[in-house]
Write a structure and sequence with these properties.
Length: 233
């Protein structure tokens, strides 16, 4: 059994609206031993972010907007895991910048969706320090976001979403998954009618895996709307 040496999972919340600020703090701090800090203005948020590492950050993107890239750069430098949860009420100038970089929720959202994703982050952070063997010689290193072939030395780097998807598939291997479950856990949305982002992400991940090994003993499959990492007999 893998256990984490870290006693507390730290979360920074950035929200200016006092009521929502209080609700998020109360609900999250009383869930799963999370240690929560809350900031309601940009200067204080950046100050604490520059001197302390957090396991994840929950931010109201509409309030951050023009400072979003600066925030993202600081968080990425100071943290081993780029776990940012962003929520927004209306589209804004820099929304395109974060769509494939962070876990997005659109208001109004269910608090259970947020808490479930925090649980996933905590669980993945505990496991991320351990290499995962997709095959005897195909190694997946979530903390480094790479997959490699130990025999040939070939390495492929994964994007944040590819990394998260492969973690989820690996933890649920040989389990058939609904599309909405994958969308909820990777993007924070339950419906994706107008785009094919999941299929595109799976295709890109497959191509990287095939560059390492053309004869894989497992496959990422979509059958009758159900997705699965299936190991061959």
């Amino acid at each position: 059994m893998v256990t984490s040496l870290k006693k507390e999972f730290s979360i920074l919340i950035y929200e200016k609206e006092k009521l929502l600020n209080s609700i998020l703090y109360y609900q999250i701090s009383n869930h799963n031993d999370f240690k929560v800090s809350v900031k309601d203005n940009n200067s204080e948020m950046f100050e604490v972010l520059n001197r302390k590492n957090f396991d994840t950050c929950i931010i109201n993107l509409n309030f951050l907007n023009e400072d979003l890239k600066n925030f993202y750069d600081i968080f990425e430098i100071n943290n081993n895991h780029n776990n940012i949860i962003g929520y927004y009420e209306h589209n804004f100038e820099n929304l395109f910048f974060v769509k494939d970089k962070i876990f997005l929720l659109k208001k109004p959202f269910r608090l259970t969706s947020l808490l479930n994703h925090l649980d996933n982050i905590k669980r993945n952070n505990t496991l991320d320090n351990t290499n995962k063997y997709l095959m005897n010689h195909i190694i997946f290193s979530p903390s480094k976001k790479i997959i490699s072939n130990a025999q040939t030395g070939i390495t492929e780097h994964l994007t944040e979403k590819e990394n998260n998807l492969l973690i989820y598939f690996f933890n649920k291997k040989n389990t058939e998954l609904l599309k909405k479950d994958l969308l909820t856990n990777i993007w924070g949305v339950s419906n994706d009618i107008n785009t094919h982002r999941l299929e595109t992400l799976i295709y890109r991940l497959k191509q990287k895996l095939l560059k390492l090994e053309s004869n894989l003993s497992f496959s990422l499959v979509n059958k009758n709307g159900l997705y699965c990492m299936k190991y061959k007999d």
